[in-house]
Amino acid sequence: MNETIIQVDSAVNFNLGPHLDTVDDGNDDGKDLYYPRINNRGECIVLDYLDNAQTQRTVKQLESTFKRLNYHFQHHPNLNNKQTLKLLDAQVGQSAIDSCFLFILTTSCREVISCANQTRIKSDLLIDSLNGKNSKSLAGKPKIVIIQEFNQHRLICDGGNDRLPKPCLIPTYADMLIYTFRGGSPIFLQTLCSIMRQHSNNNNNKFDLVKQLTMVTNVVHERTGTIPEMFSTTIKLIRI
Questions:
Q1: Of 51, 142, 198, 233, which has the fewest beta carbons less than 10 angstroms from its beta carbon?
Q2: Angle, helix 209-224 to helix 187-199, in steps of 10 degrees
Q3: Tens of pLDDT along 169-184?
């Protein structure tokens, strides 16, 4: 069988043989992971465009969780569109980053993302700032974008919502995962933190990040009736 060439972030090519299926049995030797277990995972950046009492409590939970997982944690409240892009340009240029979590707390994340001071960023510009074409240091490394959109739109199980706009935040480069919850309930990120603390940074852990997020989706749907949306172009397992 001929080898398949998969483009990664428009910057790096991986040559994959005929066996493309990956099974997460918890007994990996590193070849199916983006990176082995190390002391410094990378960056966790929180863009808090609301900066209210609820998001401040959420940020504290995220900080506790990701510091425990050996991430460098950053909280940036009330940035406007230009400040946001300048921050991301500076952060993703760091060669020592092995992965990047970007949390976005906003009121809108469709074609545009609402920032502070009534400014907006086109969604594709923000996502493109993380790809390997614009940042060689992140080429071939996982970029995880987790968004909470505080509005009334909901993705309903088995039936959908005809009034719901078509999602725009879909990754077009490899090695990206975008996970979005549309609603103001604190249960979303509370559940995420709880599951990540329980199933991450553990030598006996058999749950990669996608499985953990699926568990989050199940809990959030049961408790709120809303289904978080997940789009992934990852080609290896992400085990935190």
A1: 198
A2: 140
A3: 566 677 899 999 999 8
